[in-house]
Amino acid sequence: MQNFDYYNPTQIVFGKDRLSELDNLVPVDAKILITYGANSVKKYGTLSKVIESLKGREIVEFGGIEPNPKYETLMKAVSVVKNEKIDFLLAVGGGSVMDGTKFISIASEFEGDPTTILHHGFEPVPAKKTIPLATVVTLPATGSEMNCYGVVSFNGGKFVFYSPLTFPKFSILDPTLTFTLPKKQIANGIADTFIHTVEQYVTQPVDARFQDRTAEGILKTLIEIGVKTIENPEDYGTRANFMWCATNALNGLIGAGVPQDWTTHLIGHELTAFFGIDHGTTLAILQPSVWKHTKDQKKGKLLQYADRIWGLTEGEPEDIIEEAINKTRNFFETLGINTKLNSYGVKSEDIDDVINALRQKGLTALSETGEVSLDVSRKILEDAVG
Asked: Which residues, 6+ apart, have CB-to-CB distance to 252 below 8 Å?
């Protein structure tokens, strides 16, 4: 196991009917900006319940944060924070609202050009102070409710940022708040959670047994409940298990002390930016192709994945790995996700734009070993087109 530091200060408040506890969780003298996306939080009564639970505190609302939050929109919220002297942020929504709120938290106190927040990649933003934030999760997927990372769209690209100062103070996870979500969003959330997990698990063996077994538990749970929770959205048990899997897939626990490979996410961000394909869908499309072109470097963990997740042990290693990849693709298909880019109008001639974007961002040596060059990324994309 590799050396690691693990820090996670977020309090999780999980279960039914927990919104009323906001009164005890938010400082009594706070002036709050509630952030959200579409009007679904109003339509289904979530926003009104949140406001009711905050009992007389000063509240300002900011809605309209996009599914891939735009820098320009978030800077409007930053202006609201400054003009209204906001001192607490409460994100009500899914990963995009939470990510956007983290950006608002940093940018509202940032010294200098706020665009530079987006250009640190996997190095921490040099922020000295942020606005405290918390979340009410309505869409499980990104794990943003228990980590300090965010992704923001700017100038046609998607940019990762993070700061230890943007861990939510607390996050309320009530599975019943997800019952009204469209099937497509749940399918994408399951795919996102699955890929978060394998990008920290199917890498290089380092004898991290706890991390491996925990990751395997998440994957096997998703396979067991994936179709069930889509077809039976008000089944509390399956939805609760999915929600907790999504949180633990990216709260740092399974990634501590192990190599990580974010190839699928980094290429997937470009597919969303160029073609508007849902984030979770891009991951389901790309992961089989990524494994196909990195199977030599990942052989040990792919065979472990094939054995422990799919029960595949008989035959030649190459055949076992191929079958594991096919089973993974089939799992995403059972969720209703088409796993080839040509299903979304993307053609081979469109790949140059993606490769050029990766080159401009310096994403030329991806994976845990740095062996995914632009040439390999091109092969991955060509395979994913179909």
From this structure: 6, 7, 8, 147
